[in-house]
Structure formats: structure tokens, C-alpha cells
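Q: Start with the shorter request: fold the first protein.
A: Done. Sequence, then structure:
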Amino acid sequence: MSSLVSKLKHAVNHIKTYWSTPPEGKAVSYKEFCAYSVGGIGIFGVTVLLGYITTIQYGVNIVEALDITSRETMILVVLMNVFTILRAPLISWLTDNTKTKYGKFRPYLIWLPIPLFLLSIGIAWIPDLLSGSHSIAFITFTIFFLLLQFLIALYSLAFNTLLQVISPNQSEKEMMMGLGSTIYSLGGSIVNFVFPMVANVIFTQKIMGGEDLMGINTIGTYKWIVPIMLIALFALGYWTAFGTKERAIISKDYTQRVGIFKGFAATAKNKYFWLTAARSILGSLRTLFNFFAAWVCSYLIKTAFAQSFAVSIIAFAFTPAMIGAPFLIRKFGKKKLVIASNILTAVAALPILLFLNTASASPYLILVFIFVMTFMNAVQIVTDPALNTQVYDWQQFQSGDRMEGNISQFMAILTSAVAIGTGLVQPAIAGAFGADASKDALFKPEVIFPILMWCTLITAVSSALAAIPMFFWDMTEKRHNEVIEVLKVRAARDNGELPPETASELENKILAGDGNAFMRHTETLKVRAALANGEITDEIAAGLEEQILAGDTEAFKRYSAEYATQASEASPKNTDAVTENTDRDAQETNGDNNDNTSITDEEIGSGDDPYNT
């Protein structure tokens, strides 16, 4: 017990010490981590809440509330994907060429909440007011829907891509993907619990046939509950917008101006982009089972609290996967983890195929199977952005430009072109089995069970296919770290802190497998600066350089720590002055050394990295 208390005290003290200043070797302080992850609860909550409007699955949510048929849903799917293809170049151009005092992505987290809020109100009120003419109401809804899709895509992209530039340290980013996503995903859990429960309690109504139409599928929910929840979620999301920094590894004076078609041409040479695109396309139907829980709760269980509890319990399946993913990545690598996740998701779908052949299948057992499939698939919440980081960094390594917006939107064009066809699958299956026959058709097991069974079969096949491209993924963790080190060297060269010939030599060493070449160079310069300032003797300097060149990049740090301790014991009052003078003199010497100039390791790990924008 005392050991546990001691560890807790140590953890609390560690957080206090590094609340505003990141630990050595890190870029993100605990304060900024909280801004990203806790503020992200609001941003992620917004995307989940608006997903009840922008996710077009026949028979649920806004589609059901506005009496949109399966045929109209199919029309909407086609228009949505065509519009995605047309809007992609604009989003690409906007994100890749944005440069403000708030950075490249955070401006969208600041300004987009206003139009998103207004559109969410309009999409609920205006089509309903025009319900006397169903055609006009549907056309109006489509216009508002497409605009909302455009802005929520930009808002979501800004938050997701912020993680790619919040730290130059890949292991730190992966930990934030795991622990950070576990925290901010609470926004989705909260929304998925509170929103359906409140909606079903307040707005559930009787329909012909005596069945209860759950409030989540009625228009009053979207007129009143959505706006109130959006205000609270947007307010929390502003903590992320104003409490984080962007730290891309680029030179100080770099200004990106990437043309749309030039950017697409450069992206087309990135093989990891194509492998990611192939995985996305082949796996485009692997999450078709996601809407099962809503159908089971709305049309089979039919109680006000069912969807809130069911979705919350199923969402719990994400938690262990997200927390454990960074550790699994370090043990097995991203490649093996993604392959295993897709194959196991396909295997987990098989029991549903057998189970739904029976006319008396229990809806609660169906939810159990959905939970297992969600658990198997959940690890990709962390691995997907981690793999995207490798795609973005490789693109910068190849072309010299960071093109997160261009790459993501080129991907959107490809996947949307495919989705014009795949998006028709669910409403087509629903229509084929008579879902449009009447308002209460989906309440009948003989209608809903075949739909769920066929969608599950498609999910299993798509999941298995999505694993195939990963067998060709050869960007190992070691190789990616080498890419990052080369980008640091190039940034130092462009900043004038490394002579071109030195930078070229270091880059060749790194690409030959010497991943610590730049670190050794940096540490060696610190030793020489200390020697030039008379802080160490020739003998000590020679010994430290020998250790560093042998691979012990921590040698000078250990010596400095021991020196500081001894100075503190000898003269406590002068400790700070000695340390400050040593660091300052070392930095000044580095700045004056024209033959071997580099950035200090402390700067690399801090939020004030001069390589950062």
C-alpha cells in the first residue's frame, strides 16, 4: 500500500513539475496534453452528434425523422459522394496553404463552430417547415446536408491532423493517439449515451400499428436537443483550439504554396498513400455493422433507454484497444496489428451469419456479437492516424512539402468515387427486403433480420480484403524514425544552422542505418562548446566525445547533471547562475561555430524548437 501511495505521490509531483514545461526529450507539456485530449472531448463530441445528421443509413435518425425513403437515401448517397469529390480540391488547397498566427489547422477549430451551429439548426427546421411538399423539403434538406458535410469534414480534418504536427516525436504522438484518443473519445460516449436517452424520453411517439417510434428518429430531437448540446461541446472544444501548438519539422522561413494538381501529382508518387487508399477502398464496407445497434434498439428492443445503454456498453469495447494500442505497436508493429485487427473482425462477424438465420434471434445476443466485432476493429482508431503520420512524413521526405490536406482529400476523392457504389449497398438491401413497405416494416423480424445478415456478410468480406494491402507495407518503425531524423537535418540546414556539406554527410549516415548520427553530432557540439568556454578539460572533453561517438548519446547529459549536483552541494546559492551561464554559453558557441552548427537536444524536445513553425 505504501508503495502505491509513493508511486501516486511521484506521479503527482511529476505532473506538477512538467505541467507547463515538457519533460526533457518531449515536446508536449501536461497542460497542453489536457488541452488536446480534454478539449478534444468537445470536438469529438460535435462530430459524433452531427453524425446523427450526416450519417445516411436508411431507417435511422434524421432520415427517418424526415420520412426519407430508401430510394431517396440512395440518391443522397450518390450526390454526397459526387460533392465530396468536387469539394476535395478546395479542402486540400485551404488546409495546405493556410498559415496564420494560430498555425495551419487550429484556425478551423476556432471559426467553423459558428456556421456548423447555424447549419445544424437550419437542417432541422427548414425542411420540416416545407413538409407540405415532400420534394421541396427533400431538395432543401439535400442542400443543407451537403454544406454541413463539407464543413464537418474540414472541422474533423483539422482536429485529426493537428495530432500529426503537435510533436516531432513519433513515440510521443503514438502515446497521445492511445491515451489522448481514449480521453477525447469520451465525447462520443457521452453523446451516444445522453443524446438518445433524452431524445427517446422526450420525443418518442406512437405511429400507425401501435408501435413506438423512438424519439431519436423524430424531428423534434434535432430542433431542440442538438443545438443545446452543440453549444456545450463547441465551448469545450475551444480549449483545444487555443491551448495547443503546431510543431511541424520545417525551416523557420518555409512558406508552403502547393497547387492542387501539383500536389496530387506529388502524392501519386507516394506508394504508402496508394497502399492506404487500397486498404480504405477494400475495407470501405467493413464498418457496415456500425448502425446495427441503432436498428436493434429502435426496432427490436424498443425501449427509451435501450440505445443509450447499448451504445455506451459497445463503446466500452474501444477503451482497452485504444489504451493498449501504443504498447502493442511497440511490441508487434503497426503492420501486424492492422492485419490481425481486420482478420479478427471478419472472424467475429461469422456467428451473426449463423445466428440471424433463426426467426427468434435474441436482440441482446446480437448486441453481444456487435460488441465483439467492435472490440476487434477498435485498435485501428490508433493505428490509422499512426500510419497516416508515416504517409505524411514520407511525402515531406520525398517532395519537401507537408501536404496533409492534399493527401487526405486525394484519398477522399478516391474513396468517394468508390462509395458512389458501395454507399448504395445498405439502402438497396433494405429496399429489397421490403423496408419501404410501411412505416412499421422494420419492426418485423422477417424484414430486419435478412437485412442485418446480408450486411454482416459484406462486413466480413470487406474486413478480410482490407488486410491484404498491409502485407506490402514496408515502412518499419526504424525506417520511419530515420525519415524523421533526415527531416530534422534538412530543417537545420535550411535554417542555416548546418552547413550543406555537413547536412549531406549526416543525411547519408542516417539513410545508411545510423539513426543517431544527428544526435551524436549535436551532443559533440555541446562538448566542444563546454571545452571552448573552459567548463571542462581537454581530457574530459576527449572522453565524452569518445563515449558519444561510441553511441552513448546521454554521456554529456549525465556529466552535466553530476556537475550541477556537485556545484549545488558546494554553493547552493550559485547553482542556478552556473547552470544558466553554462547553457547560454554553450548555445552562443554553437551559434558562432560555422563549421559544425546544430540545434541543442533540449531545443529538439521542447515546445520552442527553432525548427518548428
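Q: Next, the second protein, separately.
A: Sequence, then structure:
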Amino acid sequence: MIISRANPMKRVVFASLLAALYGCSDVGTDSNFESFDTTAPVDDWQLVWSDDFDSDQLDTTKWNYEFGCDISGDNVQNCYSDSAENTYVTDSNLHLIATKQPEDSFKPYNSARVTTKNTVDWKYGRFEIRAKFPYGEGAWATISLVPTDEEYGEGLSSGQINIAEALNLKVDDGEGNLESRINGSLHYGGELTGFETSGQQFAPSDEVNPADDFHTYAVEWQEGEIRWYVDGYLFATQRASELVYDAEGSPVKLLHPGWFAEYIDPETGELATFYNNAPFDQYFHLTMDLSVGGPEGANTSVDETAFAEGQSFVIDYVRVYKCATGPGNGSGCDTLRAGYDQLPTDEYPAPEYALVEGLAPDPVESTGAPRELVVNGTFDGDVSSWNKDADITVVTEDGNSFFFGAVAAAGNPWDVNLSAPMTLIPETDYVLTFDAKASEARTIVAGLGFYHDPWTNATKTVALTTEWQTYTLRITTAGFGDDDSRALFDMGDQLGDVSIDNVSVRRDIEMVVNGTFEGDVSSWNKDADITVVTEDGNTFFYGAVDAAGNPWDVNLSAPLTLVPDTDYVLTFDAKATEARTIVAGLGFYHDPWTNATETVSLTNEWQTFTLRINTAGFGDDDSRALFDMGDQLGDVSIDDISVMALGD
């Protein structure tokens, strides 16, 4: 199902998962597991293609050579060759060999890559390879499934399935252990968020190294799910993303973050994020290669002594099976075990529990603007979506319409109630904002909750004055949330008429890093006059203004990514040693310094300020929330800074 539109967000461009995972050493290696006979797969797996390498040379009706010096696009120190020195068959084994080249060669090594592209490809099935991996610092071997037609864009936009990948086997990991792990992973993503890699590593046992002997590596790939095996043990599972959709069919939350794809939506012609089976729903072909050096970001140094006599990646056989019971989607022949579909826990770490979370972006985060859940929160026009007691009516003053509750007799808070039906997701953060006033000072109860028994909710009591004020409540739906939920306003327990306007409920996507200043504040940029102070257990920024000058002479800034022409809400707490003003707002963090700000008046007591700001004419990856306080004497304290996108 389609999709969530996404604004361009820069993420780390693909570097193999090895770069991140080979630095870890907590992969379980002492699991007891049952193997199955990989030469006789479970019922209904039918062999459709194989190569046992029984001839005296590579069968070019099944395989092609890929050769060149810039194929992989990674930080490798080899060219790929079709020379018999680098690829040969002997004793029913295919050998891919890395060999040292003369000093004047284009790259220090030659190696080999073979592929079934243009000979045969598949969509879904079981892919099984028995192989012995190379060893030594800089030895990087991979068995992959690569898309044949790149239906979703060039390179990794169309996905890649790494059946088995190993780097630096038998090399000391710095902790006295010899590297023995195999990596199984997926590559996916695209232009909007950048390419992503998710996967898991596995070591057969403490005594077994994949470079010492042959082991059987396999994936079972079906529609929406891919599983990885070593010698029959299922060590990793990945799935397509699962989402919650609202009544209009728009995605609102990831239930399970899995893979995703980014490509041109054929209905709109726009680049979009898709949370379906793409890119792993097209035809892929097999690729096997031995490289020298390793991926960007990993340890790419090379131990020349390991390659002095040539380093070998040896393949005994390759077998491909299709599931007879589910030829269209690959399902029905699953080789499963307990824990294969559960996320790791402290009690059952990977690979005992084998489900891997992918890196699909949250559908709300990917748009940069959480969706409005309230229908007609301004009460202009049709208000039939709202539920209200008879004491509440719509009033219009000076062209502005709002709800007006007349409480003539005090009773239970819920005796006079205003509610906005909506879908809420359990254990999710929301922001409820509204404007309110009363005929005389009083309180009301506002919040979110079920719209049915047991009426579980999360509410706050807010104090109203006779002037319009904006209230911002951050609420977590702990223990409640479904399609029959609501925003609620209970006002029946006190005399005094209540007016309510501009009600909004949105997912709370906090954009500020550490707006409470607890712990690391290195993400903030501040002038020397601003320090971190702790009083009564509360930490905040404190600006000492000893000489008045330009407002920006004493500045506190939080770097942000802002989207042009988008509505945001900036909230913060502030006070001063004596009454004064400061400038607060959002803007570019570079020339021409375009911004939108407001001047706010501080007292010597903490106050909460809520500013609604539209990024008209500015917004990019180098933007900020800003606080300028240098134009007046009087020290300033600032705390609990938040920025949230409101969108359209």
C-alpha cells in the first residue's frame, strides 16, 4: 500500500552494515540448535536451478564474469578480472582468488566476481550456497542477490539481499578474539532519506570459523519476509514494514519498522516513500565475489601477508529452490523455529530471538509535519464532528467562532463536556493545544482518552483567566488508544462560562535535541556569556548580560532542519533577574539569516511561552531555534525548549 510523502532528509549514504556491526562483539556463539539436512530441504521445496561445479571450468551458460576496477563503488583495492588466475574450477569447487599485482598496476590486487545476470534470475525461493570463506585483514567476500532490472531506481534504491558476507575473518578483533562472524543484511532506501542497511551477524560457535571449513549459507525469501540460515540454523528474520492507517487510509504509525522503498509514485509523478513489499518484490540474480579492502567506514586496511600466496573464496555448490505450495509468493515451505519472529530481549538476545528491526522512517517523521487529528478545531462552519453537551453552543464574536460552555450549576467535571472523536495509538506522545478563557478565573480538565468504557484517559487541570490564552499539553496515551478515542474538555465542576477555540491534536515529534539541558548539551550553540546552571535538581541555560548591545550579541541556538512555509510551535520556559524582553523564534543558521521571531516579556518568575511560527521564505538542513538576549541588561534563564512541526 502507498505511502507517505517525504521531504528530503539527508541520512548516512550506504556503507555496508559491516562498518557498524563488525565493531561489536556481543553476538551469541553458544546456541544449541537443531540442523536439518540442507541437501534434502523440507517438503515442497523443489530444486529449480543448481551448479555443483563438476566440470573443469566455469559454466558460462549459468554464470557471467564481471570485470573492471570500479564496479563495487566501495573502498576496495582490487580490480575484477576474468583471468583463469582469479577464477577456476577444480575438485568440484569454484575458486575465486585474490592475487597481488605488480607495482605499476592500476590497483594492488586482482580478484573475481561472478553473476547469473542475463542467464537466470528469480523472485522468491530458497537460495543455498555451501562455501568456505577467505581470511585475513582486508579479505571481504559476499554472496548476494541483486536486482536484475532496477525497477525502483539505480543501485541500492532497488534493494540488495546479502545472503552471507564476511570481512577480516581470523583477524584479532582487539579483544583477543579471532573474527568469526557472518553477516546477513538488506540494503534499501533511496533519494529522500538515503540508503539504509539492516541485518544481523552470526558466529556458528566459539570453535568454528567460516574460513576453516565449508558451511551452508541460505536465505528463504518470500513475499514480505526474508530469513537467514547458517548450517540450517535460522539466525535472522527481516520483514516488510507494518503500519497503522487512519480512516482515510493515511499511515500514522509504524507497528514494525522494516524495509521501505523510495521511488516515483505513478499516480502523482512525485518521489515518495512506500511501505509495501518493494523493493524485495522483483526479480534478483546471484552474485558472488571476493574483494580486497572492505567497505567505506569499516577497517579497510590490508595485510599483504594474507594475500602473498593468493587468498581463496571457495564455493562447493549453489542450489535454488522454489516453494511448490506458494510459487507466486514463496510462502508455505518456511523453515522456522521458536523465536524466529520475535525481537531480541535481555533474556533472549540475538540470535535466540531473531527478528531484526529495519530502518523505515516513521510516516509522520518522513513528512516533517504531524497530521492534524481534530476535524474543524477552529469551529468555523460544520461542527457536527464534535460531541457536546446541551450547555455548549457555538458563538461568533468579531468574525471568530468558538465553543461556549455555560455552567450554571456545579457538579461532576464531565457533566459539561466537549469531545473531538479521533483515532489514538497506544503508548504514543501527542500534543494537545487550544485557546481558552472564562467569564471569571476557574479551571477545566483537558486531555485525551477512550470514548468508551473503561474511559481510561490522561488529563491535566488548566487554570483559565478572563483573557484568551494558548495552552499546550504534552500527553502520552499510556494504556489507552484505539479508533474510538477523543480529545476531551470537562468543565462542569465549577461555575463560570468557558470559551474554547483553535483545538489541535498531533503526534509529538520533538525536533530539539535535549531541550531540558540534562546531560550532554554539545548539540547547542551558545555565546560565552551563557552557561549551564543547576538549581534544586533542575538544569537550565543561564545568560549573563553585563553590557547591552545588539540582541544577537548574546545568543542561544538549537540547530534544526526546518521545512519552508511550514507551521511550527516553539515552546520554552524563561525568567529574568528583573523584568526585560528577549527575542525568540526560528530562522536560517547562515546568511541571509532570514527568520521569524517574537519579542517576549520576562519576569523574575518562570513562565511558559508558546509561539506559533510559519517558516515563510526560509528553512533547510542548516536552520535553528534562536534566543537573542544581548540588547538589555538583566540575566536570563531558559529551560524546556521544544519545537514541533504542525504542518498544514
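Q: Describe the second briefly.
A: The first strand starts at residue 2 and ends at 4. The radius of gyration is 31 Å.
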